[in-house]
Amino acid sequence: MKAPSVLHLDIDAFFAAVEETLEPALRGKPLIIGGLAHERGVVCTASYAARRFGVHSGMALRTAAKKCPQAVFRRGRYHLYSRISQQFFACLRRFSPRVEEVSIDEAYVDLGGSRYLCRSVYELAARIKAAAERETGLKISAGLGCTRLGAKLACEAAKPGGLFWLHDEAEFISHLTLDKIPGVGPQTYFVLQGLGVRRGRELQTKYPALWRKVFAGQYAGGMERRRPEPASRSFSRETTFPEDIREQGMLCSHLAYLLDRLAVQLLREGLYAGRVEVKVRFSDFSTFTQRAGLPFPTYSYFHLWQGALPLLRSLLAKRDLPLRLIGAKVEELQAGRDILPFFSLRDEKMTAAIAGVKERFGFSSLRSARSMLLEELYPVEREGMVLKTASLTK
Ligand SMILES: [Mg+2]
């Protein structure tokens, strides 16, 4: 049997767990992070005690409050979470040079080159998990597999707090219902159900080409990626307003702020965006998005803004209503680019210089004037505004 070489780790109920560590009285109680019960916005993390009442992340806070009236609600301290997240990844990097951060609390670790650190890969995995738990002070679930998919599924099964090793991945997956398989989104699941396919095994035998397509590289050995990476990657940020907003200046201010954050993120990761998307949700909950290609791949805040502003204007014309949410997304990310139009350099250098200052003195040290109106609405902290709903990324 092939030795497993991929370890997937996931911190359990991350934000809630951090709050519980800092405030032990919260332990075991239903705890919801994302906002207060009467506020708008969504649940970012629910503790396991809250999940038992049917609360899950992404659910509207008010719905969560109905399902679990006794829950404790907290707005969340995102700078703190991101600091712990960095400790988590730093710990993993001591054991392997190849660590892939999937989200703030999730990572894949390639054990291929590190397996001789211990007598067995399983022992090594247990050691990594224990070290990460000790250093973050949090419970972490872990899964070992020969493929990313196998490791991820093992980790799901190990929650909360366990370490699983999936011995026979193909066999395990063939018995799973498709909605349990990462990579099968709600739409694919819906289509497959229509074809009478419910389990992995049926998909494999009836539609082998589709099976390969759904799993593409996910099923490849080791740390191989799911898909050719850049096409599927995007960064997005969005926020729900404390009150519906109609005034265009204020809406533009929000958009500018979100784009500012995205530009810094692109620069930090060394990526160029080929397309920008704007999302709006009106007070009647109708939601629209529009996207536009950028003239060339870029990380420049100024070009993102030029691409996004017309989109916002055209979206606002769709309804004569105030907005409750605005979002921005950069897509078609790529690590390099062929064409470098001369005129782009100045704006990019400016974005890079601004990002340098932010890196050193905090995100808020240098802000676009367009986003200044936001100071009327939100407190400003060193690392940014304290928006209603934490910006969601990746
Ligand atoms: Mg988690």
Question: Layout of helices and strands, plus pairs?
Answer:
Elements: E1 6-11, H1 14-22, E2 31-33, E3 45-46, H2 48-51, H3 61-67, E4 72-74, H4 78-93, E5 99-103, E6 106-110, H5 121-136, E7 140-145, H6 148-158, E8 163-165, H7 169-175, H8 186-194, H9 200-206, H10 208-215, H11 229-232, E9 235-245, H12 248-269, E10 273-282, E11 287-298, H13 301-316, E12 323-331, H14 344-361, E13 380-381, E14 384-385
Parallel strand pairs: 2-4, 7-8
Antiparallel strand pairs: 1-6, 1-7, 2-3, 5-6, 9-12, 10-11, 10-12, 13-14
Helix pairs in contact: 4-5, 9-10, 12-13
The structure holds magnesium ion.
Please provide a written account of the structure.
The chain is α+β, with helices and mostly antiparallel strands and 394 residues long. Among the domains are: 14-78, MutS, DNA mismatch repair protein, domain I (3-Layer(aba) Sandwich); 170-219, no CATH class; 231-385, 2-Layer Sandwich (Dna Ligase, domain 1), CATH 3.30.1490. It is 39% helix and 20% strand. The protein contains 14 helices and 14 strands. The protein has a 5-stranded mixed β-sheet with strand order 5-6-1-7-8. Helix 4 runs antiparallel to helix 5 and helix 9 (200-206) crosses helix 10 (208-215). The longest helix is centred in the middle third of the chain and has 22 residues, at 248-269. It starts with 5 loop residues before the first strand and ends in a 9-residue tail after the last strand. The model is unreliable at 226-231 (pLDDT under 50). The structure holds magnesium ion. Residues 10-12, 14, 105 line the site of magnesium ion. Magnesium ion binds at residues 10-12, 14, 105.
